[in-house]
Structure formats: structure tokens, C-alpha cells
Amino acid sequence: MLPVKTASPPSVDRAFTILEEVAQSNRGLRLREIALKLGAPRSSTHSLLVALERRGVFTLANAGLKGMALREISHPILAGLMRQTGLTVHMAILDREHAVLIEQIVPPPELGPTTWPGERLELHCTALGKALAAFEPEEHWDGFAGKRALARHNDNTICSRKKFLDELATTCKRGYAMDDEEVDLGVRCLGVPVFGAGREAVAAISVSGTCVEVHTGNAAELVKLLTAAANQIRRALGGNGTAYGGAAPAAT
Question: Which residues are registered as beta bridge partners of 208?
């Protein structure tokens, strides 16, 4: 018996055609041009574009392209940071209300990663998320805090909207973010922003380990190494000099 060929829904084919045409265009496309390429009425083409925009497909595609370039440039620097610290190193970019992980380098002899590239991380309880959100314009902070409840992972998780906004202000002032067992008990992370050629934060990087590996005794040195790596990446992206120097964590 011959295998049955399952036809793709026309709307799905058209949606992918739109994405392909936009990706191949250097200047963008107008509605009329897209409709002509699809051989479809402007009204139905417009409906497809609205659906793609509402689902964040264009944003996600742009984030993916941006992430690939950043990952390629940053990988040797992040690998060096992993060797210096002996800790797991992560890199993420901001996509609306989440941090999207684009790189993870795990030191040997770890068995395997607990996260994966493309995973979406919460902003209120991760060092990467806090570092990304805190260095966005302050008028965006309310949107990050949102109107919905912030997910609780354990008793250390910041679940209050006010406390999250206070945490962003603290992070911005001191230059680094911390996840103090806020997602997983027994695990701490430190994160800093990575600035582009201007002052805008294009990514964040972090180191994570157990509470034995990351503690008040070595946090200042870890922040120093993170800051140096972030500035190396900035220079690799075309920025000049040093964007900032992370403040040393206060002893507790």
C-alpha cells in the first residue's frame, strides 16, 4: 500500500511563505507585495500577518537570529569564564517578558545540562532575568512586573510586585543580579548585563553553582570575572572601552 501523503493546511503554508519572504528581503515588504507573492487577497494576507504578530513569531525569529550571532561571538569568552570559575555559565537575551537562554557551558565532569538553549526563563527569580530587566529603561519595569501573580518556586522566591521592582532598582544600582536559591534550593547564580556598542543591554551572562560553590566569600571575585567577560563581549561586538564595573557584593 502506498503511503498516504498528508497535505499541509493552506494557512500554514502561507504563514511559512510569509516568513521566508520577509527573511529574504533586505528592506522589508509591504502588505501589497506580500499578497502578490502569496497570490492571496490583501484581507486574508493581513489576517495572517496580524496572527503572526500577535503570537510573537516575528519577535521570536529576530531573537533567534540575534541569539545565533551573539552566541558565536561570545562562546570562546564564555568558555574561558567557565574555566576560570569552574561553574556553569549561561547567556540569555530578553524576549518580551522572559529571558531566552542562548548558551550554556557546563564544566566537566557534569553529567549534563539542566537547562537548554531556547528555554524561556522567568525574570523575577533568575539572575539572567533580573540582569536583563533591570537595565531596560525604568518605564518598562511595570510591564515586567505584570499584573498577574509572580510564580513561587520556594520560600525564597520574590513573589511581590513591589519587592520585584525594588530588586530591579537594587540590581541596576549595584551592577549585578543574584538568584539566591530563588528557583532551586541549594543553587545560587550571579548575573551581569552585556552592553552593545551603545549603553543598551543586548544580553546577560551568569555563573551558577551550589551554595558551597557560590557564597559571600567568593561572590566579589565572581562578579569581577563576570564583568570582565561582559566587557570582552562588548568590545567583540564593536563597543569601545569598558561599559561599567560591577560593584562588589556586600558581605552578609
Answer: 88, 189
